[in-house]
Specification:
InterPro entries: DUF6588. Residues 1-27 form the signal peptide. Pfam families: DUF6588. The protein is of the alpha+beta class. It has one domain (7-339): Lipocalin, CATH 2.40.128. It contains four helices and 18 strands. The protein has helices at residues 7-21, 29-62, 197-201, 286-294, and strands at 77-87, 94-98, 106-107, 112-116, 126-131, 134-139, 148-159, 164-170, 174-175, 179-191, 204-222, 225-226, 229-230, 233-253, 256-274, 299-314, 317-325, 329-339. Strand 7 and strand 8 form a beta hairpin. Helix 1 (7-21) packs across helix 2. The longest helix has 34 residues, at 29-62. The protein starts with 6 loop residues before the first helix and ends with a strand.
């Protein structure tokens, strides 16, 4: 089972404590080492807890960029209200922890337990450890407890020269039970079928897109109280920068347009703890140190995603349903209006 090292951190925290708190800190070296082990355990738990949510965020942000590969008219503007519907799979809703995973905490009951990820249920177990003469006791964080996650966002596009289209996606921060989610980004779509008259005559459309998006998902995390003050790690954020390439093709059948797409995305995933700083910050800059340590679990994710869609035209309005599939399933429903 995984063992976490903490010696480099102990040196960092001792130096920081001496520089910032000379004459004010009475903690002994042993207690500083215990704080180091506590933070190492928090890093281990952070990785297991929030990674499924950031993986899911990639799928949520990837969907719906191309609503049609058709060539846009110059300066045409389309505005759309999207509702994203994400299904959380059982395999990513929980994980198992063992006493051997930890260097500071231990389970109060048994040697192993199944606990929820950020996508999981409300089940909790108690962990405890000893910091100096003080016992630290905490409950593991709850998950969203939502098998289906739905949230709205706005998307707009502007027709440019040479069959190119600017696409912008934005959602305000949406509260999703113990979680906040936000996505925004932009992309450029270029119509390819304009170069093949035979495709145009058959109402077959092809396009490619390059896009960037930023996803920010945050969860309530560990509210730890000690005799030295609160630790201030009661919120954890997953920050995801996704770069996406997409190829799409569609065929019109009267008022219907059927579309298929393939997406390749690279996502840089970062983590940080936030929220109100703890009172322990009067002694040790804990959030700053922990955020520095979180760099060790930063990730790069590569995803291959398929997408199928069907759209129905009603004058200047379009109604569309999109299904993205791969590791996860994500559905996107939108109402679009064309200004021209």
């Amino acid at each position: 089972m995984r063992k976490l090292t903490h010696k480099p951190f102990i040196k960092t925290i001792v130096i920081a404590a001496i520089l910032l708190c000379t004459g004010r800190v009475g903690a002994q070296t042993e207690e500083l080492e215990q704080v180091g082990r506590l933070i190492s355990d928090a890093l281990f738990f952070s990785d297991q807890y929030i990674t499924p949510a950031t993986d899911a965020a990639v799928y949520q942000a990837a969907s719906g960029w191309i609503t049609s590969p058709k060539k846009p008219e110059l300066w045409d503007v389309t505005l759309a209200l999207h509702t994203n519907i994400f299904f959380t799979p059982q395999r990513d809703r929980k994980f198992t922890i063992y006493n051997s995973d930890f260097t500071f905490f231990q389970l109060e009951e048994g040697t192993s337990a199944t606990v929820p990820t950020a996508l999981g249920n409300k089940d909790q177990v108690y962990l405890s450890g000893q910091l100096g003469d003080s016992e630290i006791r905490l409950e593991t964080p709850q998950g969203m407890n939502m098998q289906v996650v739905a949230y709205p966002y706005l998307q707009g596009s502007l027709g440019l020269l040479y069959g190119t289209e600017l696409v912008i996606k934005y959602s305000p921060q949406v509260n999703l039970k113990k979680s906040d989610y936000q996505v925004y980004g932009f992309g450029l779509k270029h119509n390819v079928s304009q170069y093949f008259k035979s495709l145009f005559d058959k109402k077959i459309h092809l396009a490619v897109l390059g896009a960037w998006s930023k996803e920010d998902v945050s969860f309530e995390f560990l509210n730890v109280k000690t005799d030295y003050g609160t630790l201030g790690i009661n919120q954890i954020n997953g920050l995801v920068d996704t770069y996406q390439l997409q190829a799409s093709g569609s065929k019109e059948f009267g008022n219907f347009e059927v579309m298929g797409s393939f997406m390749y995305s690279v996502s840089d995933v970062k983590y940080k703890v936030g929220g109100e700083t703890g009172t322990i910050e009067e002694t040790i800059p804990l959030q700053q140190i922990l955020n520095s340590r979180l760099k060790s679990i930063y990730k790069t994710r590569i995803n291959y995603i398929g997408e199928a869609a069907i759209k129905y035209n009603i004058g200047k309005f379009n109604v569309q349903t999109i299904l993205a599939f791969g590791k996860f399933l994500n559905t996107n429903v939108s109402l679009q209006y064309l200004f021209n």
